[in-house]
Specification:
Helix content is about 60%, strand content about 15%. By secondary structure, the protein is of the alpha+beta class. Helix 3 (about 110-145) runs antiparallel to helix 4 (about 150-185). The protein is elongated and about 70 Å long. Responsible for the release of ribosomes from messenger RNA at the termination of protein biosynthesis. May increase the efficiency of translation by recycling ribosomes from one round of translation to another.
């Protein structure tokens, strides 16, 4: 494996870590409703666990309410149960074949707790990026030992890997700041 390959695979893996962080941050709820909040809720669909968006339509009624309309009337109870039992702390209400999911207002204490949660998620993503940097640097050292590249090439490549790492860490910090601002906004 050459220097270019090491840098390319390292950068791809770092971007995957950032994408994973984005998905984790999307699950943390803010005061506003959005349909992505329910994406990871699993429903028992005739013995098979399926994502809620595969068994129902989801829409926003207003800024604090999501409406969920299962495609089959028999599934209304199962969908409502899945939302209620999820770790989101939501209390859905059934009206005929439509389930309304109101978003409770966040208290100041809960907002602070959510900020702590996203900071932990961000720190996990930073650790993943730093581990990828370490692995790339080790691969470069192995190339030097095998006398496939010179020490000068190794140093230049390590500098480039560090620049990629710095960009990814800055991107993570930016996403965390945006999410924190979103959570703390009343």
């Amino acid at each position: 494996m050459g220097i270019a390959e090491i840098k390319k695979t390292t950068e791809e893996k770092m971007h995957k870590s950032i994408e994973s962080l984005k998905l984790d941050l999307a699950k943390v709820r803010t005061g506003r409703a959005h349909t992505g909040l329910l994406d990871h809720v699993m429903v028992d669909y005739y013995g098979t666990m399926m994502a809620i968006n595969q068994v129902a339509n989801m829409n926003l009624v207003d800024a604090r309410t999501i409406s969920v309309q299962p495609w089959e009337k028999k599934m209304v109870q199962a969908v409502e149960k899945a939302i209620r039992e999820s770790d989101l702390g939501l209390n859905p209400q059934t009206q005929g074949d439509i389930i309304r999911v109101p978003m409770p207002a966040l208290t100041e204490e809960r907002r602070r707790d959510l900020v702590k949660v996203i900071k932990q998620e961000g720190e996990g993503a930073k650790v993943a990026v730093r581990n990828l940097r370490r692995d790339a640097n080790q691969s470069l050292k192995d190339l030097v030992k095998a006398k496939e590249i010179s020490e000068d090439d190794e140093r230049r490549a390590q500098d480039e890997v560090q620049k990629i790492t710095d960009r990814c860490i800055a991107d993570i910090d930016k996403q965390l700041a945006q999410k924190e601002a979103e959570i703390m906004a009343v």
